[in-house]
């Protein structure tokens, strides 16, 4: 009987070993196959001209018009292929990327549309076939006045969004809201942004850098800086911000490190700044609010701040007469 049991155990063990080995071999073959597949090998190079394809990158930088792009046989009559990158750069002809610009083809890692000085719009359909594995969207130094933010909801693996140097006017409400748990960098400097909608940057637990400097912001409205992480650094230098709404953080986390240099802030009203600075003071992260280059006044509106010297480690409040707030004579506030 013991021999029968031993034989049974032996065969069970042998089958498990064989199954494990087969799985390992299968995985290795799959991995090797994936690495060796180049979508360019499946395209007739003459059918995609003036686009070119190499090293899994589809490059249509030589296209001279939207009509030409939409008439390229290899883009619109072939089955959809996944390329590491789809790109158009340094193009001075295209004014838009229209619906169906790349047919059924899509990117698996990144879209790069950069330094196209006539490119004013991108249709959301351009990204509709995109793989959920896309990690980068690069659309810097074009002439974009807007971006189809609703289209990036497909990109659950997105890590960086680079759109500096355009003419984008608005970041709509919920633009990046919970787009990706991996999104760590958003670069929107040197645009023409005049408004940030509510909860535009909510639900991004790994966000580390949000750059909005050199835009046209005049205020920070309700929920515009609602964040879901305590490690984000927000740069808003060189705007025209004169007002911060009391509900700017919208119940979320106010940025622990925020640069507001070279704006038009006349003072820091008690609401919301007492609450904001109190939260920052209690944070375990390194925190600061950079305010240099604002026309800050030492008047009755900041008497509350004068009475809270513990906040001096968070902000360097220099009055319009050149004095540091906490070096101002107490008599300045006698009539408040």
Automatic annotation (TrEMBL):
The record's listing under PANTHER family reads: ANTIGEN BSP, PUTATIVE-RELATED, CHAOPTIN-RELATED
- Which Pfam family, an example, fits this chain? LRR_5
Q: Tell me a GO cellular component.
A: plasma membrane
Q: Which residues form the signal peptide?
A: 1-21
- Native species: Notodromas monacha
Where do transmembrane segments lie in this chain?
none
Q: Which UniProt keywords apply?
A: Leucine-rich repeat, Repeat, Signal
Enumerate the InterPro entries for this protein.
Answer: Leu-rich_rpt, Leu-rich_rpt_typical-subtyp, LRR_5, LRR_dom_sf, LRR_TM_domain-containing
Q: Is Cell membrane one of the keywords UniProt gives this record?
A: no
- Top-rank taxon, per record: Eukaryota
Q: Kindly provide the name given to this protein in its UniProt entry.
A: Uncharacterized protein
């Amino acid at each position: 009987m013991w021999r029968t049991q031993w034989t049974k155990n032996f065969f069970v063990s042998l089958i498990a070993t064989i199954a494990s080995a087969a799985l390992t071999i299968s995985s290795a073959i799959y991995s090797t196959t994936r690495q060796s597949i180049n979508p360019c090998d499946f395209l007739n190079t003459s059918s995609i001209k003036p686009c070119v394809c190499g090293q899994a990158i589809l490059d249509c930088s030589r296209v001279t018009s939207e009509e030409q792009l939409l008439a390229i046989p290899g883009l619109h009559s072939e089955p959809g292929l996944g390329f590491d990158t789809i790109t158009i750069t340094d193009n001075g002809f295209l004014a838009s990327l229209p619906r169906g610009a790349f047919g059924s083809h899509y990117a698996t890692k990144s879209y790069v549309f950069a330094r196209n000085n006539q490119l004013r719009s991108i249709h959301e359909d351009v990204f509709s076939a995109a793989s959920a594995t896309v990690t980068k969207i690069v659309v810097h130094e074009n002439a974009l006045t807007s971006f189809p933010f609703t289209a990036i909801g497909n990109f659950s693996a997105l890590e960086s969004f680079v759109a500096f140097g355009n003419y984008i006017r608005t970041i709509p409400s919920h633009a990046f809201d919970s787009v990706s748990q991996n999104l760590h960098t958003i670069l929107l400097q040197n645009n023409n942004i005049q408004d940030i909608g509510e909860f535009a940057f909510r639900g991004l637990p790994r966000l580390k850098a949000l750059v909005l400097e050199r835009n046209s912001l005049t205020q920070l409205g309700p929920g515009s800086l609602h964040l879901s992480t305590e490690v984000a650094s927000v740069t808003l230098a060189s705007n025209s911000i004169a007002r911060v709404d009391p509900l700017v953080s919208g119940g979320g986390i106010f940025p622990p490190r925020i640069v507001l240099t070279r704006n038009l802030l006349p003072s820091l009203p008690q609401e919301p700044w007492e609450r904001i600075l109190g939260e920052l003071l209690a944070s375990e992260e390194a925190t600061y609010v950079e305010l240099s280059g604002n026309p800050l006044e030492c008047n009755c509106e900041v008497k509350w701040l004068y009475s809270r010297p513990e906040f001096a480690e968070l902000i360097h409040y220099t009055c319009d007469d050149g004095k540091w707030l906490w070096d101002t004579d107490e008599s300045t506030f006698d009539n408040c």
